[in-house]
Amino acid sequence: ISIGTVTALAPSPWLQRGALALMLAPAMVSTLLGYGLPVFAVIHAIFLAYTFVMSSMATREFWQAVASNEQLRQQEIELRHAQKLESVGRLAAGLAHEINTPVQFISDSCTFLADGLGELEAGIAGYRELVENIATGRVETDLALGHADQVEATHDLAYLRENLPAAAERAMVGLARVAEIVRATREFSRNATTKSPENLNAALESTLVICHHETGAVADVVTDLGTIPLVNCHGGELNQVFLNIIVNAAHAIGEVNQTGRERGTIAIRTWAPEDGWVKVSISDTGAGIPDEIIDKVFDPFFTTKPVGQGSGQGLAIARSIVVGKHGGKLEVQSKPGLGTTFTIALPA
After folding, report:
1. How much is the pTM?
2. What is the pLDDT of residues 150-199, one digit of tens each?
3. Residue 281 and residue 271: Cα distance in Å, rounded?
4. CA 188, 190, 195 angle in degrees (round to 5)?
5. Helix axes 38-136, 141-155, angle to 10 degrees
6. For residues 47 and 21, what is the distance between their CA atoms, to the nearest angstrom?
7. Cα 326–346–202 angle (5° rounding)?
8. Which residues pair with 341 in a beta bridge?
């Protein structure tokens, strides 16, 4: 709520003071007119003055607190946006690579299609010429088959018949992949100001497309997306939560892989246990989190990564979004040497 809204809704301090003055005024006036002891008028006046002074101080402190809370809220929003921009910037090179790969074989396939269509056109012209020669008697019928074979060989028509459909199919697959990446990027980057019913399974799939360059290099991603209801939430912000945790999982596996172990696994599961919650678990086969620091992983600026490789804000922001903004739960379980599991629970 903005300061302006709070100001509009908060009770007027002057209205409170006026009501108090109206309650005390009859006793004070009657005392001054001789219907009571003067000392009571003095006491009432002192009490009224004291109340006015203290209420002014309390009002000032109240609005100072409101201003401070508003400033903190704005700083948190700016921090979330900055962290999201940092994530997108970090993944920009990966997204460029993800798009460039299908674009490359789309280009190669289209080049082959263009060349092949040129050869097909020349082959059709050769057949038309052969038919005209047969019709006019310039080529005898018993020699027509040999001429046809020559046209086939000259323009490699058998090879084109075999490979042109495959090239067209590869181009279509590449276009579908680019469309998927663009759709996922659009879904990830949207920033709705109000909650709306969202499909968390679709959100996870979009996020996996965005961070495929991070995960694909070190791990196999295994998904078990169950049947879950739509969740009323800020979809864009939950995408940021999923991204932070999945990328952290990839980095944890990558650190282990440097020691010579095989590719790791990131397992993502969704389910609705019929207790009023929708749950998402993201597990990795990284090195795990030591027991002595596991309680600190959600603290702002806490990170186990080397200097310059992590701001320590990802999990803190994730918890703020899940717990503070959605009334959910974010829990972590880890076994050193075996891996880590983050579980997100959101009201159904």
Report:
1. 0.63
2. 888 888 888 998 899 999 999 999 898 888 888 887 777 676 678 889 99
3. 9
4. 110
5. 150
6. 10
7. 105
8. 283, 333
- 8 Å CB contact between 83 and 314: yes
Task: Report which residue type is found at 40.
Answer: F
Q: What is the DSSP letter of 11?
A: P
Total Cβ atoms within 10 A of residue 286? 27
DSSP secondary structure of 214-262: HHHTTEEEEEEE-----EEE-HHHHHHHHHHHHHHHHHHHHHHHTTT--
Residues 6+ apart with CB under 8 A from 93: 213
Q: Is the pLDDT of residue 140 over 90?
A: no
Q: Which of 98, 106, 120, 119 is nearest to 167 (CA)?
A: 106
Residue type, 71: Q
Measured distance CA(10)–CA(30) in Å, rounded: 34
SS (H, E, C) 55-114: HHHHHHHHHHHHHHHHHHHHHHHHHHHHHHHHHHHHHHHHHHHHHHHHHHHHHHHHHHHH
Structure tokens at 200: 């968390």
| Nearby residues of 171 by Cβ (< 8 Å), 6 or more positions away | 105, 106, 109, 110, 113
Query: How far, in whole angstroms, is CA 167 from its chain's centroid?
Result: 34
> Exposed, middle or buried, 346 (CB in 10 Å: 0-12/13-18/19+)?
buried
Structure-token pair, residue 277 = 């919650």
User: Of 325, 330, 303, 312, nearest to 73 (Cα)?
Assistant: 325
Q: For residue 242, which of 254, 250, 232 has the smallest C-alpha distance? A: 250
Mean pLDDT for all residues in the chain: 79
Q: Alpha carbon of 272 to those of 243, 281, 348: distances in Å?
A: 21, 12, 8
172 is written with which tokens?
């279509």
